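Crash report, auto-generated. Payload:
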Amino acid sequence: MAVRTRYAPDRGLTVRMTATMFLLGLVFVAFVALIIGIMAATHSSLGAIIVVALIFGGGTAFISLFYSDKIALAAAGAREVSPRQAPELHAIVDRLCALADMDKPRIAIAPTAMPNAFATGRNSKNSVLCVTDGLLYRSKLTPEELEGVLAHELSHVAHKDVQVMTYASLLAIVAGLLVRFAFYSEIFGGGRRGGGNSQAALLIPLIMLGSALIYAISFLLIRLLSRYRELAADRSGALLTGNPGALMEALKKVSGGMASIPTKDLRSAEPLNAFYFAPALRPNGQGLANIFSTHPSLQKRLEELAKVQRQLNQATPGDR
Amino acid sequence: MGFLDTLFGRTKPAQPKLDDLFALPSAAIQLQAAMGFTPTGSGSVSFKAVAGKTFSDIQREVQELLNMDTGKPGEAGLPVEVTRDSFGYTWLVANHMSDEMEGLVTDLHAVNSALVDNGYGPQLLCTLVAFRDDSGRSLALVYLYKRGTFYPFAPLPGRQDDHDTGLELEAKSVLEDDLKIEQDMTRWFPIYGAPGL
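Recovered output after restart:
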């Protein structure tokens, strides 16, 4: 279909995302194999720890998924605003949702000087789109640029990024808990058991090591996935507004504004980082710091948006 | 949106549904009979212009196309007006005589087709057709392209923060048989001061 090509998906991005998710799955399989291996070797004397970790980790993830909107709003100190309180903001989102044919999320404003925005919630019916005072009043964004930012956030909602990232993080949460549990049982459990089961005593450090390794790998993969999802949201947002240039300008302005922010705000914003429009924490060093980052570099985002710009202006939509 | 699209974070831009627009003339008759609202003869198409030359070329073509048929003899041919609202949407306003509902809808549809044929269908936001009753109250029927549904919008004179919900609900009940009315009322977004209203 001729119509489809102008808005064609970015194949490269899809491939990279697939590879990342495949690797995460691989790590997950390795993790399960490790658990089963250990359970078999110790005749399930360690099973309780693992089950507790699974329940704990799964429970945490489940709660954070179901209450993500409330948790995020509370953490940001944001309050919901009605169409009467913020008519402009609602009007922009109304129109974008009509363009994209999606449910309108609730709108909230956070009293933070840092210019930023985030969207959270497990599905489009339970989503909240939150912008900070800084973004509305201090960042000097034009209406088009603000619209670009909101379109980016709406894309996160449409892509169900909170769900995807929660499922992706589940393994890391469980592995992280296992490290901790194994550590405690090493300290407190070792004496009680006496010399009874030396095999189990040997295996506990092994679990710790394995879990720590898996935690580290999955942590890096999740960060990578998060960066890809940011690029995907940039792309969808730009296609929605038809104006990648405005989003590029907004990114430059917001990233520039991040530098002059008091430290307290930066630190209190840390837990929400993955869902922010621009990361609230700037790694000091470049290069290696990038692989720990939840967001792609500004340059990378601008390059990808320039690509969308070109695509939208193809002379004939039928051409490949 | 399919599971894979969610997984890979690629939104398929929503394509517009166009054919339901042609239900408007019969709805207009119904609206006049039941509520005394007559068409003002103006209607408008709202879309999100894409930055760049390709799109502005298409927009100019559409404008020229619509302006062509206004030169008919014995007709006060009004040219198509183009305005950009404060939200960055472009409105093409077509003006006809109040009894030319068919011609108006044809004009509005020409804008859709031109955009869709050039691959810019996802940029269409809404179309509205304006009505007025003897006491001067306004009512617009707004067509949501992505939903293929209509909703009524009744502005209050001089107000930018409230609209006549009672009148809208009345229109909804009157039109329910003739038009596909948007059932999810959270999607009835107000369009204060929309061109063509």
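Post-recovery validation: The longest strand of chain B covers residues 38-48.
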